Amino acid sequence: MSDSLQLQELENSLEGSLFYDELHKKIYATDASAYRIMPLAVAIPKSENDIVNIIRFASKNKISITPRTAGTSLAGQTVGSGIIVDVSKHFNKIIAFDPKNKTVTVQPGVIRDELNLYLKPHGLFFAPTTSTTNRCMIGGMVGNNSSGTTSIRYGVTRDKIVEIKAVLSDGSTAVFKDLTSEEFIEKTKGDSLESKIYKTIYEELSNKENQEEILREFPKPEIHRRNTGYAIDALLKSELFSGTENTINLGKLLCGSEGTLAFTTEVTLKADDLPPTNNIMVVAHFHTIQESLEAVVVAMKHHLYTCEMMDDTILDCTKTNREQSKNRFFIV
């Protein structure tokens, strides 16, 4: 069967849309990065059942799928040669809010700033602050383990994960949340893909040699923004694998995995109290990058809310910007 006939078969099974014309493929061949890969097709699912159908179709035909929200990725994470699955149009609802426990459940297409507008009247906010907060979406932030200027005070997206509902590679669904060691072991029993995932992780991470290699080779845990692969070391914090924490959450592993492990359909996040209304900003000038980095060591002793470096390249971009040029009064 030809590609077009196969795609027509998929298209007929969807409530949403499937595009495989040249225009749509060219539009989705790029994101905010410098990369360009022509996809086979672009799917815009309307329901979770659509996502299940897309995944089963892709698995059957050995086609890759790439989850995508706003496409603000800077390293080509949302481009690929298979089917681009854009959830920004229909998966953009805030599903539930628990003010007592300060948690909110959203679909992946919710824009970060719009979520915070919703949370603000309750004195809360979702803390990770990227440079694209007015357009980046929660699904992408989870996939990327986004951090931003406030991470030194509030942590990164992985620290905010309470629960992730996702579709697995066989089309089945699973919910990843905090489990006790006993609950985790119970999950390993059975023949479902979810059970096999828990069983495999348990077998691999129970191995002392594997534990030692992970602890030896992974970046220092103090470096919380380190998207260099799957955060397997975060799982070793569980008492199940010689750690000290009494719960384990595979949602932490999905965060930062760029959609390669499962397809997220819902995320429950921890919200933080809004920072103080009044604040002070200190702007220091340095002759070299090295000087500025050394100053950070001193600055970090003062319990900051944010810390950011701006070099000549960034500041020069403000010269011809109508809005930002008026803010150049502090540049010497």
Look at the helices and sheets and give the structural class: alpha+beta
Give me the number of helical elements. Answer: 13
Proportion of helical residues: 25-40%
- List the secondary-structure elements in sequence, H or E: HEHEHEEEEHEHHEEEHHHHEHEEHH
Q: Strand count, sense and closure of the main sheet?
A: 5 strands, antiparallel
Shape: globular
Mean pLDDT score, rounded? 92
> What is the CA-atom radius of gyration, in angstroms?
22 Å
Q: Please indicate the percent range of residues in DSSP E strands (runs of 2 or more).
A: 15-25%
Count the strands?
A: 13
N-end to C-end Cα span = 66 Å
Oligomer: single chain
Give the strand line-up of the largest sheet.
Answer: 5-6-12-8-9
The low-pLDDT segments are none
